[in-house]
Amino acid sequence: MFAILKVQLQQMKRNPATMLLMIVMTVLFTVAMGANAVTSVPVYAFHDPALSADDAEAWLERLNRSETFEFALTPEAEAKERVTEGKAEFALRLLPDDYRIVAAVDDSANLQALAHYVRTVYEEELTIRAAEASSGGASIRGELEERLAAPALRVASSEVATEEDFKYDARVQALFGFALFFSIFTVAYSVNALLEEKKSGVWDRVILSPVSKTSMYIGHLVNSFIAGYAQIAIVFVLFRYVFGFPVGDSFATLLLLIGVYTFAVVALGLLLAGLVQTPQQMAVLIPIVAVSSAMIGGAYWPIEIVTNPALLALAKVIPVTYGMEALKGVAYHGYTWSELLRPVSYLLLIGVACMGVGINLIERRGRG
């Protein structure tokens, strides 16, 4: 096994073009997408005639407590014009006890986050008003603020984000998405070398030596794993320590997670190798699988904004889905290993299943 692995690593060292190209592509795409990221999303708000200017300012003050969105009062015509011309994603119409969001598209990640945030602010304020009204005008708000300032009991809690309550950072989304996406190419093309050796007869000649078939498989697959893992790790280190991307406080956990993800992708590559007849067919199939996996698995955009049941069902059998879930869980929410158990388990399950079926198909074709 070690002899085979050594040979494969030497070949990769002599010809690292694929890995270097994928690293460069990941960096370029991530920088291009991340350059458009802003620390806060501007929201142009205008108030209904039924709402006074003072009340509108009061609502704006409450809404601007967010670090994600920056609300600014704008004339109604100007706000709608910005949305129509594509200069703004959305605008917000303030009503006395309600609101309306004006948007050009309804599937934006920022739109989902805005809707959830504004709804939360309005529900909180209206609840306080209702409590004050039912208590005969007592200052519920002042009492609440005093208790929040000096709580009698402090409770530390954590919660798993739901599809309705998720965080979104364009830089993190781009980094994780493109890193996982381009690693599929490196790993799959590395696995394709196994088919090349089988076709050229190298595989049969080596098996006649004391090297076992199991050692051949392990040597090739470990080499593919090292190539994919090293590529993602290099990209993560670069963007964490050079570009300063906010990838969370547990960088070591991210490095362990990409190991699990890479294992699943290696197994997927082996399954593809078992489904095709020639290395040329494999080379054609790799881009199709990589691009479709990235699109369905949430690498290009957050999977939380996808509503199509068929696509969501397909996403459940794609490694990218669980890779993104685990990585974003650590970066956004500081997931512990107990919370990472679900995506990690699915990645391991997909890896074991794909590897078992892939090897079986390759061996069956070899006997045929």
Automatic annotation (TrEMBL):
Membrane-spanning residues: 20-45, 174-195, 216-239, 251-276, 283-303, 344-362
Family under the similarity heading: Belongs to the ABC-2 integral membrane protein family.
GO molecular function, one term: ABC-type transporter activity
Start and end residues of each ABC transmembrane type-2 domain: 138-365
Native organism: Paenibacillus antri
GO CC annotation, single: plasma membrane
Name of the protein: ABC transporter permease
InterPro entries the UniProt entry points to: ABC-2_transporter_component, ABC2_TM, ABC2_TM_bact-type
Keyword Transmembrane helix: yes
Topological type in the membrane: Multi-pass membrane protein
Family annotation (Pfam families): ABC2_membrane_3
Localisation per UniProt entry: Cell membrane
PANTHER family registered for this protein in UniProt: MEMBRANE COMPONENT OF ABC TRANSPORTER YHHJ-RELATED (PTHR30294), TRANSPORT PERMEASE PROTEIN (PTHR30294:SF38)
Keywords, comma-separated and alphabetical: Cell membrane, Membrane, Transmembrane, Transmembrane helix, Transport
